[in-house]
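Peptidase M60 domain-containing protein (Candidatus Alistipes avicola), 486 aa
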Amino acid sequence: MALESDEQIKVSYVPFDYISVSNKQVEELHLSKASDVFQEEADSRRYTVTYEQCIGSDGQVENITYKLPVLYAVWPCDKPFPGDLDYEILYEVFLPRSAATQKSACGLSADALDAMERVVAANSVVVGPPIEPVIATGYPSGIVSCYDSYLGDYVPMTNLKIRFQFGSNIYEVFTDGLGRFSLDQPFFYLGAVSFVFQDKWRIVYENSTTIITEKLGTYVSLAGKDLGEMNIMIDPSSAPDPRYDIHRAIAFYYNGVTSYYIDSNNSVIHYHNIPAYVSSDGVRIEAHEGDEGNINGRFVYNILNKYHIEIKNKNRSESARLMGTVWHELGHYSQFGLLNGYSKFNSRDKLLKESWASYAGWEMGTSYYSRVNGFRVINSDNDITGQARQNWHLSIDSNMVPYSPLFVDLRDNFDQSSIYTEPETPNVLPSDRIRGLSYDIINRLAKDGGNWTAFKNILREYVPAHYTERELDDFLFYWDIYYESN
């Protein structure tokens, strides 16, 4: 009787009198229950179990056969049925995880008992008053939205896979650019719903390869719901839980953001201006619980062109800063693709790589927040993601020197050297009178500016079309000093 010894499985041979059965005295349990509960059932509803090579107090005895009612079991969905077990599934009902894990004195929760009673009642197994069977309540549809702490508002969770499961039946659907989903299959209110954090990316826990699946029940209960209006609102900052902001950042990197025009009932997709690298393997993103000093994230790669992104336990309650870290690391991922892998990417010096990644975090943050949930103007001095690096100077902490505004300053409209009144301070920060350089030129610098000399030569090609020689020399001044000593 191996089933009774498996701690994962709750079994009973008597409907709705559920207990956990141990190895000892199982035959006594079966005999005492079978006689008084199943007296009205036909013999065809029973099955037999034969015990062979039985040992009694006086030694070996003859084989013993017991006539038993049908076995009822709560079986984990991810646990395969044993190959050597002779069985037939007569009725199947799916119990949501929350129901199966709430233990009561009799072994199973009230929800679990109710679910199994309904299925058995619907198939006329129990003699007594009829119980309404489990029925589909509709075709699930709705909107999944996520609270953004920067905006103070809920925004769509796009490209999120939603899994509906009832027993062995699994249906999956993705949310669209406005966070909407609609299932074209009827669904049962006792079924379970999950979020699966994958598409072109895989969000996993630290040092893992197992995709994170969010079991629904935390945010909404299906029981009693009109599945035609199944809106789900998530507040990850209250936990805090980084997965949703990580997902939003990556979804924007690959798929852009959709703005909806209420007056015309139309929508339009807006994209960022960072070359999105789409590799056949996708990219694994680890959400770390550990803290690592002042490190917010890391792009890890090796000579075999294997890579992944680590997001550290920072800024968990600040959506824009957390997403800025993700976009920064995706900037590295993008440049890794631009440079065709390990060799050229690894040879690029750290300041050029980190300055490009900082620009990616700034540019994608500005693009996302200026379009999500409608249109808004982002002031040029508003560093939403913390990636603009406008306080950079040569005497900054040595660990932060590579994180410069080199690429940002070519595009933004903000001259940080002009915001101070002290006469000595402006000379510390770069002179940033270059603005609005085209995305094509900036992306070319990310790809072909392999060293400082090559980088400057590309910029000089655009004098005087985009800036004067003096403006460029003033702009490059402090980076020239840096490269003279590095």
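The first helix runs from residue 2 to 5. Confidence is low (pLDDT under 50) at residues 13-47, 96-113, 119-136, 217-221. ok done for today
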